[in-house]
Amino acid sequence: MAKYDYDIGIIGGGAAGLTVAAGAAQFGAKTILIEKSGRLGGDCLHYGCVPSKTLIRTASVWAHTRRSSEFGLPGLSLPPVHLGKVMDRVRSVIDTIQRHDSPDRFCTLGAAVRFGKPTFTDDHEVDVEGNRISAKSWIIATGSGPALPPVEGLAGIPYWTNETVFSQRELPGRLIVLGGGPVGLEIAQAFQRLGSQVTIVEFLGQILGPEDPDIADILRTRLIAEGIEIHTNTAAIKVESAGGVIRLLAGPSQGEGSRQVIEGDAILVATGRNPNVEDLGLYAAGVNYSSKGISTNERMKTNISHIYACGDVNGVLPFTHVAGYEAGIAVSNAVLHLPFKADYRKAGWCTYTDPEVASIGLNEKRAQKEGTEYRVIEETFRTNDRALAEGETQGIIKILVDPKGRILGAQIIGPRAGELIHEWILSMTAGVKLSTIAGMVHLYPNLSEISKKVAGDLFATKIFSEKTRSMLRLLLNLKGRACEIS
Ligand SMILES: Cc1cc2nc3c(=O)[nH]c(=O)nc-3n(C[C@H](O)[C@H](O)[C@H](O)COP(=O)(O)OP(=O)(O)OC[C@H]3O[C@@H](n4cnc5c(N)ncnc54)[C@H](O)[C@@H]3O)c2cc1C
Q1: For ligand 1, what atom is nearest to the CA of residue 15?
Q2: Distance CA 214, CA 411 (A)
Q3: Ligand 1 close to Cβ of residue 14 (< 6 A)
Q4: Which residues make Cβ contacts (< 8 Å) with residue 92, sequence separation at least 6?
Q5: Which of 185, 202, 347, 402 is the most exposed place for a label (fewest CB within 10 A)?
Q6: pLDDT tens, 221-271?
Q7: By C-alpha distance, which of 241, 92, 93, 84 is closest to 171?
Q8: Protein residue whose Cα sits closest to atom 9 of ligand 1
Q9: 471 alpha carbon – ligand 1 mean position (Å)
Q10: pLDDT per residue as tens digits for the range 237-249
């Protein structure tokens, strides 16, 4: 008789858990996936990437419609937005994708799916509502939930989080957004564009804290131009709700300064994420964890060598593509016993505001923090023909190179930055040189020509230097400048 019921047990049916389940089952491991919520897909599908990107697209259509006269079209006076109809579209996109994440599909792939709440009884066994299930290896992929800031009165008012915002039906006249990170900014811009007056309250000195200040400033300028009010260096202190009006008391996050009251009709809390580590019985399994998540090594192993943790729950990088990447590492190790390790230098991210902000590798902040010597080369979208044609010229590309000219990182803020960054992800993953990018024939007219241009900048100063010109004059008998208009 087999020692365990399953080869692989997975807890959590989101981006990470589903990737592990599909991989493990297709490799022939007897696999069970346990999900507590009653449906598969996790945060990304139900409360994250999918609804937010769908909402952003709708808001972008509306924002472009409002800009019609900039494109030589008649100016339009637009009616108010019916948020319920907008959210119906969000719902329909989720439903379409949900079909792909159906339990039947995973069953067809060879994995059992069990809905219920598992608790470890020891390091090989969980209890799911009275039923004991054992597995040789376990993969914990329970994701994260919204972190609530310590604001007096918050628990007593009807605040929104990413788990409730996409089921709202009434557009608030005024929306307060706590948090100027990716989640807060994406939703803030979408609601502003749909017709709310949005105020963002951010504790740090800049929005998008991990990004370089010049990049964050470009976005801040754009959001303010669209009418959003932004308070950085500001702490939310106390909040109350009376007669449908929310009153937030805010003050300086550091030092002395005056306090102010910000009023809104709704408030969204987007102040970070908490890994879902509670109620799993991790003590019984002997798995170490903290409020930052379940720590793992590069092979996704916890301190218990047959228990792995991947996705948001390990607290490393809270993105769906990272969850998928880590899940692949976990499958390689747990199923195939191949000692693959995660290399987070390959993992970029994007904030899907307009303009988008995409990043891979080192930016100036991170390079300075780790003491890496770097040099910056930069180009703007203002001189990109396609950006001009599309009326989307705000933004820059910023490449960090080491003293030998090797690529350390790429930051792009601009139209479709989330697509453009892939040329740089490939370059950094495959060790492509800047000279290769500079020599590539990019199709005209495209936004991606900005990548060729910025790569070429490093060589242009050397190639067209006075030293090279003097040498060529001498060697090839060139006659030099001929600046004359007749
Ligand atoms: C508003 C928003 C927008 C986002 N947009 C993007 C984006 O554009 N791009 C991007 O890359 N990332 C985005 N993210 C992040 C992305 O959603 C997460 O990184 C991703 O969902 C993490 O996947 P996961 O598998 O770790 O967790 P999840 O997808 O959340 O899955 C965890 C699953 O575990 C289940 N679970 C939890 N506890 C238990 C338990 N005790 N027992 C059993 N099951 C349990 C949950 O119900 C859930 O189904 C966004 C996040 C938010 C909040």
Answers
A1: 25
A2: 11
A3: yes
A4: none
A5: 402
A6: 999 999 999 999 999 999 999 999 999 999 999 988 899 999 999 999 999
A7: 84
A8: 49
A9: 60
A10: 999 999 999 999 9
